């Protein structure tokens, strides 16, 4: 037989912009999602898991004038020969699939339909530092309820969720605004020109970054940005820009004061008054349930998504300070956002269906909790490692691990080549093992085992004096029958309970 | 402005072969995966979550002689213009990504590396009834351990896992076989010809379906199958086929008897003897930990995957009977399988790395538990629904739901149009609500609420006589202050505790 031509070895690499998650990274996220799902379920929301793959048509990203769909989504033609069959794509968020699901199953689903969804989404975008092409979203939406009680409910649920995952009251705030108020402001400004309105909306979206003075410049003649580029302005006069700025800065000491400022800003506009009234209702509904301004506030400076949503918008911010890359203090910032979008299902059915919902940035929330030291402690503890001193007595070692597990202790036997004991201890170290179990011929003959406290050992190695070292031996010998009890005692001395 | 040309409405449909999962379908699977992860973790396995997307090269499905990868995987060229850049693909299992991950991160990972992974995989195959193009896998593998102690450990873990998710001892069995024993049999048969060996392997894989007589036919002249098609045989004489059949049917009353039969079947073959010795070791290691033949047995009739694996293979079967589509009794069958495959990482690094692992068919296991009525009860209970009798008093209704939730009870307010009370009751019914709360003007004036027991109501509507109906009123009136206590009492009367 002819020698087959060697194919080059494949590269062992994730595709650009993708990454692997190991151990505690996975389990901590899973625990958080479970906690969040518990809160959502208590509010009557039902789980939905739609497939990762949708038709591109259903996602609504297909441009009819190009052969391939434009960037942003991962897409492919279903049939081998391109052009035949549907184009399929990976979902880029959880809202577009919700619209498809609701339109497809609306006869069987309850209305209103409260649903939550958690899972990865994919973006075919240029990856950057900390920016991946696959990441988690965690959404809750109410479809088919026009009442602002639905918006108020989601704000309350968001506050409950943050507290449930470990953000104490006082360390977060849910801020609420309303697109209709802004529409009212634009109306009293007399901005009839669609393009100019759109430009004002885009400008408002930058308020977070550029502040009041920046927004004034951008609404007027334009602005030199930090990179030295000149950004054209919308071309309004300073007087014309006033109502917009009044809107953005109308937050008062109390909700009443804020609402009075907003009422003034929208003047005679009917839609504006409707928006103010909605905010008023939301504040009342929340207040009645005990969600005061220490948790949820009416705040017209919330601009994220104002261009996208059609009614109330809301955003959750963590208010404690962290150090940024350069060691400067700054607020942690936004971890969740959402709002009302009433045209969700219309694309499919022609009928407008009101909807409101929130998306939690799970990975940002995890980062915040890690930053505050509220997760990442016990969960990361490795298993007890039973070392192998005599490879013919594997059954005994497996039984030890088995007994420990039966008592709820994470435990494993070293399964590599047992020849070199140093390698076994290096392995235990790499596994983050709190305790190593050792039973050689001598121990076996005497009916005992050696237990090495690796956490204590590491502490001693780092800092202890000789005296301390003698007083607190990091290795103890116990009768074989006391193995489980002693290991549990050593673990609890380090604050490690039995495995979950 | 010219009227824009109407684009046709997109179809609200999942792509062919994909489906949505709702409510309890999602939460029951999540609970099962969590339970399984708990067992895996207790055995020292660490979570790994690799991306859904891999390079096609890393997955190893790329055929160099075709422009597009062959069917089986969903794949696309990374760059807009085809041919440029990598081909990317959705993973079709969790083992190929493990090989890539281990090769990529082997310097930082412990060796042996025990990892578990759970998540969807995708197959670009023709969908069929109950066969989807996205489904869950749940794997545990040990990489870098050549010892059969690793195989024994996974068998024990598999038994523990089945019991943890609710399959009682006696309703399952883990069966173990070894590819090396089969290799020994082929060796003593003198089958040197690669193609003939491959044909024998393919035949053995059909033992499950066609039984001993069928295998004899297929090893010999051939066989007329059920559909009337004639399947060519391997062309062995009856005597040549004997050792294969002896191997497949060598299970004895005890492990010792089975092993003696196998030792006879492999005769002088060194690899065969090695295989028998491995099975012997596995049986001993398991026995020492208390896993007797009521849980794990040596069974040479396990053939699934014998062609793929290189050493021990194992399979978990549920042994209780269910009724099939046609009402006939049959055993539920296989829910998990795995084995040793020692060439996992070699494609990437050139070095052989031993590995062994198992994959649990989560959806089949869920189906089995539903079939036995062991899941799908309480989890499916809907929330308490607070009805809206007066839309101006929404704050009161939201507060009721809020109080119930604070006591751990799933509760929601009806957020649809409250005009028609009948619609609210229909909604409560569709939600599977156990209790509806009603407070109209009259109740409010008197400081009471009405609680409608919908589960009892449904039972009464179905079967009760008028007398019973009078004795067991399905609607009670309680003081507003007793709302939470009374609802909890009604729920517990139906065996429904507070929400998880």
UniProtKB/TrEMBL annotation, chains A, B:
A single cellular component GO annotation: cytoplasm
What processes does the entry annotate via GO biological process terms? histidyl-tRNA aminoacylation
Main localization is cytoplasm
State where the protein is found: Cytoplasm
Q: Where is the Aminoacyl-transfer RNA synthetases class-II family profile domain?
A: 1-383
Enzyme class at the top of the EC tree: ligase
* EC number, as in UniProt: 6.1.1.21
Question: Which CDD domains does this entry report, sorted A to Z?
Answer: HisRS-like_core (cd00773), HisRS_anticodon (cd00859)
Superkingdom to which the source organism belongs: Bacteria
Reactions catalysed, as given in the entry: tRNA(His) + L-histidine + ATP = L-histidyl-tRNA(His) + AMP + diphosphate + H(+)
Keywords, sorted A to Z? Aminoacyl-tRNA synthetase, ATP-binding, Cytoplasm, Ligase, Nucleotide-binding, Protein biosynthesis
Task: Indicate whether Ligase appears among the record's keywords.
Answer: yes
NCBIfam families, alphabetically? hisS (TIGR00442)
- Family to which the UniProt record says this protein belongs: Belongs to the class-II aminoacyl-tRNA synthetase family.
Quaternary structure (record):
Homodimer.
Q: What is this protein called?
A: Histidine--tRNA ligase
The scientific name of the source species is Rhodosalinus halophilus
């Amino acid at each position: 037989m002819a020698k087959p031509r060697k194919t080059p070895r494949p590269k062992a690499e994730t595709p650009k912009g993708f990454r692997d998650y190991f151990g505690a990274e996975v389990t901590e996220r899973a625990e958080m999602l479970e906690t969040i799902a518990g809160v959502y379920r208590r509010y009557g929301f039902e789980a939905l898991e739609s497939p990762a793959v949708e038709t591109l048509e259903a996602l609504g990203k297909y441009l009819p004038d190009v052969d391939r769909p434009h960037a942003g989504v991962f897409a492919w033609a279903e049939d081998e020969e391109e052009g035949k069959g549907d184009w399929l794509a990976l979902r880029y968020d959880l809202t577009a699939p919700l619209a498809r699901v609701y339109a497809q199953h609306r006869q069987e689903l309850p209305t209103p339909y409260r649903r939550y969804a958690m899972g990865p989404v994919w973006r075919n975008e240029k990856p950057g530092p900390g920016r991946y092409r696959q990441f988690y979203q965690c959404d809750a939406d109410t479809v088919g309820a026009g009442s602002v009680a639905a918006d108020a409910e989601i704000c309350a649920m968001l506050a409950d969720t943050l507290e449930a995952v470990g953000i104490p009251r006082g360390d977060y705030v849910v801020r609420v605004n309303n697109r209709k108020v802004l529409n009212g402001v634009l109306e009293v400004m007399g901005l009839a020109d669609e393009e100019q309105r759109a430009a004002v909306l885009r400008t408002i979206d930058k308020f977070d970054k550029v502040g009041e003075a920046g927004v004034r410049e951008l609404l007027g003649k334009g602005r030199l940005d930090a990179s030295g580029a000149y950004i054209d302005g919308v071309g309004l006069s300073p007087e014309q820009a006033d109502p917009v700025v009044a809107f953005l800065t109308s937050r008062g000491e109390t909700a009443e004061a804020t609402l009075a400022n907003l009422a003034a800003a929208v003047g005679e506009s009917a839609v504006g008054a409707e928006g103010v009234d909605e905010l008023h209702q939301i504040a009342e509904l929340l207040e009645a349930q005990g969600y005061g301004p220490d948790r949820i506030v009416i705040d017209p400076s919330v601009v994220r998504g104002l261009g996208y949503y059609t009614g109330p918008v809301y955003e959750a911010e963590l208010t404690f300070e962290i150090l940024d890359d350069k060691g400067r203090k700054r607020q942690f910032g936004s971890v969740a956002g959402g709002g009302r979008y009433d045209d969700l299902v219309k694309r499919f059915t022609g009928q407008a269906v009101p909807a409101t919902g929130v998306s939690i940035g799970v990975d940002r929330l995890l980062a915040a909790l890690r930053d505050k030291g509220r997760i990442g402690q016990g969960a990361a503890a490795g298993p007890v490692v039973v070392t192998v001193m005599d490879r013919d007595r594997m059954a005994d070692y497996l039984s030890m691990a088995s007994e420990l597990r039966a008592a709820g202790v994470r435990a494993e036997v070293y399964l590599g080549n047992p020849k070199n004991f140093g390698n076994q201890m290096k392995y235990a170290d790499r596994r983050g093992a709190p305790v190593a179990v050792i039973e050689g011929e001598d121990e076996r003959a005497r009916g005992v085992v050696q237990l090495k406290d690796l956490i204590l050992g590491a502490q001693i190695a780092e800092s202890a004096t000789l005296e301390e070292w003698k007083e607190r031996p990091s290795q103890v010998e116990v009768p074989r029958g006391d193995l489980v009890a002693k290991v549990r005692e050593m673990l609890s001395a380090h604050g490690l309970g039995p495995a979950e």
